[in-house]
Amino acid sequence: MNKYIPVIGLEVHIELSTVSKMFCSCSALHFAKEPNTQVCPTCLGLPGAMPYPNKIAIKDVLKFGLATNSKVNKFSKFDRKHYMYPDLPKSYQISQYDLPFCINGKISLKSGKTINLRRIHLEEDTAKLQHYEDETGQYSLIDFNRSGVALCEMVTEPDFENVDDVIEFLKEIQLIVRYLGISQADMEKGSMRLEANLSLRPEKDSILPDYKIELKNINSFRFLEKALNYEIQRQADLLNKGVKVAQETRGFDQLKNTTFSQRIKEEAQDYRYFPEPDIPPFRFEDKFIFVIKSEIGEMPQEKRVRFANDYKIPQNYIEVLLSDKKRSEYFDKLAELDKKYSIGLNTIANLMVNKNLDQEYPEPELFIKKLLEITKKDYSTTDENTNAVYEVLHEFPKAVSDYNSGKGAVIGFLVGMVQKKLGGKGNPKVITDMLILNLKSPK
Ligand code: ADP
Ligand code: MG
Ligand code: ZN
């Protein structure tokens, strides 16, 4: 049996949450809308209809690129990618080929490993096929509401060697996109779509295998994990038997937890790419890029480091708080308020993470008020205080006379002695006031 190292590269599609579509002014909010109600000649691909690009979508992609340490191609263009399918009315998709908006990005994983992002480009989404079956047989209908919605594609180098890194990376990408506010990146709704390419490399080899399997149509991190694990085993079994793994696209069967062949993958040359003649190329000025960069704000990784350094709360709390941008900002507000109340950031984080107390109190001020109530000490009673103060004043006459001759600092010692008698349960302010009152008019 040979030992194999998985070689994995990802292609991630992110549907941008722009108001209008990529090349027309139809609404891009297609989810759960009446079919074919948000369409026009452009996104229906009617002859003669002209595309005009959505500036916000382009800015969003540049933002995403800059936030992932990519280089912006200052000269860029759209290209036509040709293939025939019922969800693609023009029989070509406007996409980007050799000059994508962003290239050469980098994302670091917790292990310190770096994943290289080959490219981030912009394209248009396809229509959606709905499949039906009734007594007349099977048939499909097409909903064009999604046709022409802005879609951003990110492609990584085949840098992953294990499934855990893939999942960590994808969750980080999802978080970055949500922090940027450019997409909901919701897999169930299809606004984040994953494809993984996988091959196995014999441990002793250092070159890329000469084949790869593309896993498509996977709509959750958990299914991707299962599909990859299944596929690693399947390929290892084939290779160990001396069988060459066929290059193909495979889907994941959620019921059987297995992958199955969908089609033999096409090559780039089959798409007959050429520059989109209806949209002039772009030249981005440095100032334009600079302005976009300045709009990015704090990214999850920066926040992770800041929370660890400034707040010193446990890593697992940090991850939970970070996973929701609003929640992390809420915690920032609490940390600011706590400078005054000193409840302690660990206590605060614990009550948010384990008790979801922030859900009940949308206002940070009210949250703190509630916490002060919860954490309020169970103080000793007035009778207990009076007895303890009386005893201390009689047991330490020297301290009393020192105080009366002007050594005010001795009050700290007396408070300490009273607390000792009360087992630390005295309210420091109440005890101090009681002592001062009795010292001024000693009994
Ligand atoms: P194609 O031209 O078939 O689209 P690319 O070289 O553009 O292939 O790569 C597509 C994706 O496949 C990328 O995410 C890349 O990282 C990944 N990839 C390339 N070669 C391999 C390989 N041998 N094993 C696994 N993934 C690979
Ligand atoms: Mg590809
Ligand atoms: Zn339209």
From TrEMBL:
Q: What InterPro entries does the record point to? A: Asn/Gln-tRNA_amidoTrfase_suB/E, Asn/Gln-tRNA_Trfase_suB/E_cat, Asn/Gln_amidotransferase, Asn/Gln_tRNA_amidoTrase-B-like, GatB, GatB_Yqey_C_2, Gln-tRNA_amidoTrfase_suB_CS, Gln_synth/guanido_kin_cat_dom
Substrates-to-products reaction catalysed = L-glutamyl-tRNA(Gln) + L-glutamine + ATP + H2O = L-glutaminyl-tRNA(Gln) + L-glutamate + ADP + phosphate + H(+); L-aspartyl-tRNA(Asn) + L-glutamine + ATP + H2O = L-asparaginyl-tRNA(Asn) + L-glutamate + ADP + phosphate + 2 H(+)
Key words, A-Z: ATP-binding, Ligase, Nucleotide-binding, Protein biosynthesis, Transferase
Query: Do the record's keywords include Protein biosynthesis?
Result: yes
What is this enzyme's class at the first EC digit? ligase
Q: What is its EC number?
A: 6.3.5.-
Please list the residue ranges annotated as the Asn/Gln amidotransferase domain: 329-439
One Gene Ontology biological process: translation
> What terms describe the molecular function in GO for this protein?
asparaginyl-tRNA synthase (glutamine-hydrolyzing) activity; ATP binding; glutaminyl-tRNA synthase (glutamine-hydrolyzing) activity; transferase activity
Pfam families referenced in this protein's UniProt entry, alphabetically: GatB_N, GatB_Yqey
What SMART domains is this protein classified in?
A: GatB_Yqey (SM00845)
- UniProt function note: Allows the formation of correctly charged Asn-tRNA(Asn) or Gln-tRNA(Gln) through the transamidation of misacylated Asp-tRNA(Asn) or Glu-tRNA(Gln) in organisms which lack either or both of asparaginyl-tRNA or glutaminyl-tRNA synthetases. The reaction takes place in the presence of glutamine and ATP through an activated phospho-Asp-tRNA(Asn) or phospho-Glu-tRNA(Gln).
Tell me the protein family, please: Belongs to the GatB/GatE family. GatB subfamily.
Quaternary structure note: Heterotrimer of A, B and C subunits.
Q: Which NCBIfam families match?
A: gatB, PRK05477.1-2
HAMAP family in the record: GatB
Q: Name the PANTHER family on file.
A: GLUTAMYL-TRNA GLN AMIDOTRANSFERASE SUBUNIT B MITOCHONDRIAL AND PROKARYOTIC PET112-RELATED
Q: Kindly provide the name given to this protein in its UniProt entry.
A: Aspartyl/glutamyl-tRNA(Asn/Gln) amidotransferase subunit B
Please give the organism.
Candidatus Woesebacteria bacterium GW2011_GWA1_37_8
